[in-house]
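Weekly structure sync - notes
Attendees: PM, LS, DV (DV joined late)
Agenda: review two folding runs queued last week.

Item 1: First target. Sequence and structure tokens pasted below for the record.
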Amino acid sequence: MESVKAMWGVVTDSQTEIVALAKVRNEDVVPIVVSGYHYTIEMNGVKVADGYENSPVTVKPKSKTTLKFSLRLNNSFIREWWVTHIANGEKTKIRVAIKPTIEVGGRDVEVPVFLRESEFTTKLLS
């Protein structure tokens, strides 16, 4: 992946969407067929998102393209995460993993191509 840009998507009572746009390059002479992707998001060890999206796309040989990933947080876990955030002095470690499923030799293989870990702090209660 060359770069990833994320933004808020649709928010409902049950889920919060994060839309990630990833610029990728295929240096090979054969196309890369991505059938879908598995994703997880953990905040302070609380898994707030875990899903699989069927999102077929083919990355042509010797080309660049932008892949779109919709990551859906399960809002029912926000309360559990929030308790850890406050207990940690309003600090959160967040871990995002995206694993596309690609076709290799007629078989689907999940490839861990994106893992990002970071932290954020708030000062809402101080």
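Item 2: Second target, run right after the first with the same settings.
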Amino acid sequence: MHYPDVYIGTIEQYPDFSPSAIAKRQVDGGVALTPCGLEGDQQAEKAYHGGADRALCHFPREHYAWLRQQFPEEEDRFHPPAFGENLSTLGMTEDNVFIGDIFRWGDALIQVTQPRAPCYKLNHFLDCKNLSPLLQQSGRCGWLYRVVSTGNVSGDRPLELLTRNSEVSVAQAISIAFNMPFDEEQYRRLMSAAGISASWSKTMQMRLVNRKIEDFGRRLFGAEGK
């Protein structure tokens, strides 16, 4: 049984940086889960965050211990919900969670849609220049959910796996998308995974059309990565 810590946040203004809702606070007690996420949770840049296929963000709690080892001088920064996640658990990782997995959570049902794609904002907010590429290369990205059925949820209601709908783990999806050379067969495999998000399916399709992998620089490093 995996009981999640639950977090929500509102959009805040930051000096010399774009608005963001990355700063989250823990929710005590029940909260409504809507088609677009937890009631009271916000997203600033909806082209990249939120929406039906990205309603919830889950980041494994055990990754923080690894990150504290990588950045011992910044270890105080690496505790949930530093990555702006909505859910944090122990025992659920990219290796044992699969694209398309449907979980019962309280009165709701949620489905894994894609890995999280780390972006430059993590570098900025955690003051670690190469944090996003490290997460991507190590496969410690977390994942996103769509809401299949709404309802009341809480941290004292476990995430229970109901159905496994694909043979592609989140770890494998990260490897295919971010860490291996161009591979048409693997892109088609990822696109065929039941439950994959529309945006990830489109990205893989565009690779097949363009016969190349898109540049990750701007996402990982911001304007300096153009």
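Discussion on item 2: The mean pLDDT is 93.
Action: LS to circulate a short write-up before next sync.
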